[in-house]
Amino acid sequence: MSRCRSCDEVLTDFEACRKSVDTDEYIDLCNQCFNSINDDVVSVERRDLMHDYDDKPGLDHDQLDDYDYNNYLDNHNFEEDY
Q1: Which of 26, 33, 65, 78 qualifies as a cystine partner to 6, CB 3.0-4.6 A?
Q2: Strand partners, 19
Q3: What is the pTM for the complete model shown?
Q4: Measured between alpha carbons, how far is 41 from 72 in angstroms, rounded to an integer?
Q5: Residue 72: phi, psi to the nearest 5?
């Protein structure tokens, strides 16, 4: 069980699988804490693990398509390492 590095909340699967594109390391922040650094960090997210309770702060669930994992991979040239 992973916990948020900032607030110590238990992470959902979606939150626990968020990785930094620059470092290829897991970010380990809950959505609320990640929202505070979202503009400074480029991340890859696994939308297939997202549930309604993983909805990002400030976005409607319908808007997530613009930020989802698959769209990110389609718009960037790098190999996925899992």
Answers
A1: 33
A2: 26, 44
A3: 0.63
A4: 13
A5: -60, -50
pLDDT of residue 11: 92
∠ CA 56-66-54, nearest 5°, is 20
Is the per-residue pLDDT at 71 higher than 70?
no
Q: Is the distance from CB of 19 to CB of 36 less than 8 angstroms?
A: no
Helix runs in 1-82, H state only: 13-16, 31-35, 69-74
Position of tokens 């939150």?
A: 15
Q: Burial, 34: exposed, middle or buried (Cβ in 10 Å; 0-12, 13-18, 19+)?
A: buried
Q: For the chain, give every domain's residue range.
A: 13-74
